[in-house]
Structure to design on (291 residues):
């Protein structure tokens, strides 16, 4: 008698799954190294597409780096043969115009009508674009953002996407709303401007335009600042937002969950004297994260 389970089409399980397109750093808790356990804990199968392989992330004094761009299409082609589709697709750091183009093709080829696409437009921080992000690259990222349902820029990236000038805090809620509305007009229905510095607090501004009703909601959520900025917290944040979206969790509730979890991760990392470059020891409290 034939084994029906063995004959099942690959990827046809009813378990939800999300593709994560980002780099893989063996040490330092960021990108895929963070996304895989966090998304899995939220009961979504995490399927990585590596853009680069690093021994450790680039904030360390030295590192091994292998650009995976020339292998990405062959890697993705095998998934096409399996007929895979995804409930969610998330993007992290992309290092070239070619990688952005590959990701846009991936979204086109693997999306179903109900697939949720989250783009984390990692382009800069503290008012400055990363060295790899030329004007041409920033323009390409805007095109990728237009393909998203959810986009999670920090304040610097929101300024780049909207052509505004960056300034130091305080950031007014009206400014954040104006940037979120401008980003929304390019395509995504949900915008979260993350990590907004607000004195002793960190803010996350959530904007949601309902695609089925003529309505919009926006809210600024604050969490008490704990410790210093650490590598990988943005990857944890976007991973929770994507997995929750796939699971049908409302955006505002998901943002509160992500911000609160990261705060506790930082608190635990300080307690355990984890160096800033090593990210946050989320493993210690991952059991607290609930789907």
């Amino acid at each position: 008698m034939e084994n029906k389970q063995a004959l099942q089409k690959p990827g046809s399980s009813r378990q939800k799954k999300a593709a994560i397109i980002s780099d893989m750093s063996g040490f330092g808790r960021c990108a895929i190294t963070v996304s895989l356990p966090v998304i899995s804990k939220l009961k979504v199968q995490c399927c990585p597409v590596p853009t680069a392989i690093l021994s450790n992330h680039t904030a360390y004094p030295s590192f091994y780096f292998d650009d995976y761009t020339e292998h990405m299409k062959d890697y993705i082609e095998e998934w096409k043969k399996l007929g895979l589709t995804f409930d969610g697709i998330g993007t992290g750091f992309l290092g070239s115009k070619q990688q952005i183009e590959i990701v846009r093709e991936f979204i086109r080829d693997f999306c179903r009508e109900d697939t949720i696409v989250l783009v984390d437009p990692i382009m800069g921080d503290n008012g400055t674009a990363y060295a790899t992000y030329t004007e041409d690259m920033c323009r390409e990222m805007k095109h990728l953002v237009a393909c998203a349902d959810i986009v999670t820029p920090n304040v610097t990236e929101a300024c780049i996407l909207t052509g505004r000038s960056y300034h130091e805090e305080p950031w007014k809620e009206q400014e954040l709303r104006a940037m979120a509305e401008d980003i929304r007009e390019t395509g995504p229905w949900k915008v979260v401007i993350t990590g907004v510095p607000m004195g002793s607090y960190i803010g996350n501004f959530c904007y949601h335009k309902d695609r089925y009703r003529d309505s919009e909601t926006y809210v600024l959520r604050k969490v008490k600042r704990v410790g210093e900025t650490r590598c990988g917290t943005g990857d944890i944040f976007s991973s929770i937002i994507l997995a929750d979206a796939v699971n049908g969790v409302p955006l505002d509730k998901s943002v509160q969950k992500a911000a609160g979890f990261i705060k506790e991760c930082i608190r635990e990392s300080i307690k355990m004297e984890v160096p800033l470059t090593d990210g946050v020891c989320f493993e210690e409290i991952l059991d607290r994260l609930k789907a």
In short: The longest strand covers residues 45-56. The two ends are 38 Å apart (CA to CA). The CA atoms of residues 104 and 146 lie 10 Å apart. The domain at 17-281 is CATH 3.40.1190.20 (UDP-N-acetylmuramoyl-L-alanine:D-glutamate ligase).
